[in-house]
C-alpha cells in the first residue's frame, strides 16, 4: 500500500505534470555534483576549459562572518547563454548549482550558499557556440557553514514557498524563499552522528504554461533557499509557479499572480 508521502507526491505530480517533466529532464548531470575539482566537473559535463571573461559578473562579499548564508549575485552579458554554473573551490563538493534560463529569462541570478571556509567562488557560463566563460572572486569566511557540530533539526515540510513578484519594465522580478532544511550531509548532531543529506535537487519555474527556468542544486545552497531572477514578457494577471523536488522524493509547487503596477 502506498505511504502517505507517496500519495502526496503523486497528487502533486498529477496537479503539476510540468514538474514531473522538468524533474525527468533535469536528472541529467547529477554526477557533476560529486566532483571535487574543476577537471572532474568539466569531464562530467563534457565541457571545454573555461576562458576568463569580462562578460561575466559576480557580486560577493569580500569578508563574510557566517559561512552558512553567503549572498551571491551573478550574471552573463554574452549572447546565447545555455547554463550558468556556480562553484565553490574549497567546499566538500565543487558544484553548488546549475541554472538553465528559458525563453525570456535573463541569465542573471541571486542566491545564498554555504561555504566551509575562505574560498574562491567561480561562475561558469556555457554558451550555445560551445565556449565556456568564467569569472571568480575570493570570499573570506570567519565561521564556516558546511561542517561542525550543531543541534539536530526536526524534519518538517509543508511550508509554502514565498513568492514576490515585482513589475520591472517589460517583465517581472521574481523573488522566492523556498522552505527547506537543505542539510549538506556534512554536519554532526549532538551525539556525533552525521546528519544525513537532505536538500532540494531540482527547481522548475513556469510563467503561465511556459517554462522559464530549470535549476539543479547541490548540498551547498543555504537553508530556506533564496532565489531571484527576472523574466521578460510578463503582464498583470500572469501566474508564476515554482516547483521543487528533493533528494528524498518530496515535491512541492506554489504560485503567485502578477498584480498591476501602482499608478
Please outline what is shown here.
This protein is mainly β.
Q: In terms of topology, how is this protein built?
A:
Elements lengths: L3 H12 L1 H10 L11 H8 L5 E2 L3 E4 L3 E4 L3 E7 L4 E8 L6 E7 L6 E6 L5 E9 L4 E12 L4 E2 L12 E7 L2 E7 L9 E2 L11 E8 L2 E8 L8 E7 L6 E8 L4 E7 L6
Parallel strand pairs: 1-9, 3-9, 10-13
Antiparallel strand pairs: 2-4, 4-7, 5-6, 5-8, 6-15, 7-16, 8-9, 11-12, 12-16, 14-15, 14-17, 17-18
Question: What would you note in describing this structure?
Answer:
By secondary structure, the protein is mostly beta strands. It has a single domain (4-257), classed as Immunoglobulin-like (Sandwich), CATH 2.60.40. It has helices at residues 4-15, 17-26, 38-45; strands spanning 51-52, 56-59, 63-66, 70-76, 81-88, 95-101, 108-113, 119-127, 132-143, 148-149, 162-168, 171-177, 187-188, 200-207, 210-217, 226-232, 239-246, 251-257. The strands form 3 sheets. Strands 1, 3, 5, 6, 8, 9, 14, 15, 17 and 18 form a 10-stranded mixed beta sheet that branches. A 6-stranded antiparallel beta sheet has the order 2-4-7-16-12-11, with no helix packed on it. Strand 14 (200-207) and strand 15 (210-217) form a beta hairpin. Helix 1 packs across helix 2. The longest helix is centred in the N-terminal third of the chain and has 12 residues, at 4-15. The model is unreliable at 1-29 and 148-152 (pLDDT under 50).
Amino acid at each position: 500500500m502506498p505511504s502517505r508521502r507517496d500519495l502526496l507526491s503523486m497528487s502533486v505530480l498529477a496537479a503539476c505534470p510540468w514538474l514531473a517533466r522538468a524533474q525527468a529532464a533535469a536528472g541529467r548531470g547529477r554526477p557533476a555534483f560529486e566532483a571535487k575539482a574543476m577537471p572532474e566537473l568539466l569531464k562530467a559535463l563534457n565541457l571545454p576549459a573555461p576562458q576568463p571573461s569580462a562578460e561575466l559578473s559576480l557580486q560577493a562579499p569580500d569578508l563574510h562572518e557566517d559561512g552558512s548564508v553567503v549572498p551571491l549575485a551573478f550574471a552573463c552579458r554574452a549572447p546565447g547563454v545555455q547554463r550558468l554554473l556556480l562553484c565553490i573551490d574549497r567546499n566538500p563538493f565543487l558544484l553548488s548549482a546549475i541554472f538553465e534560463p528559458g525563453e525570456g529569462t535573463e541569465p542573471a541570478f541571486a542566491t545564498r550558499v554555504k561555504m566551509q571556509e575562505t574560498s574562491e567562488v567561480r561562475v561558469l557560463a556555457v554558451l550555445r557556440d560551445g565556449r565556456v566563460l568564467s569569472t571568480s572572486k575570493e570570499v573570506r569566511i570567519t565561521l564556516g557553514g558546511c561542517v561542525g557540530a550543531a543541534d539536530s533539526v526536526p524534519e518538517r515540510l509543508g511550508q509554502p514557498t514565498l513568492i514576490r513578484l515585482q513589475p520591472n519594465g517589460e517583465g517581472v522580478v521574481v523573488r522566492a524563499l523556498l522552505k527547506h532544511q537543505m542539510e549538506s550531509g556534512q554536519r554532526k548532531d549532538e551525539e556525533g552522528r552525521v546528519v544525513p543529506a537532505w536538500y532540494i535537487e531540482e527547481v522548475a519555474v513556469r510563467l503561465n504554461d511556459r517554462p522559464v527556468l530549470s535549476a539543479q542544486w547541490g548540498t551547498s545552497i543555504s537553508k530556506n533557499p533564496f532565489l531571484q531572477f527576472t523574466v521578460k514578457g510578463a503582464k498583470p494577471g500572469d501566474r508564476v509557479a515554482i516547483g521543487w523536488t528533493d533528494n528524498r522524493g518530496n515535491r512541492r509547487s506554489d504560485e503567485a499572480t502578477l498584480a498591476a503596477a501602482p499608478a
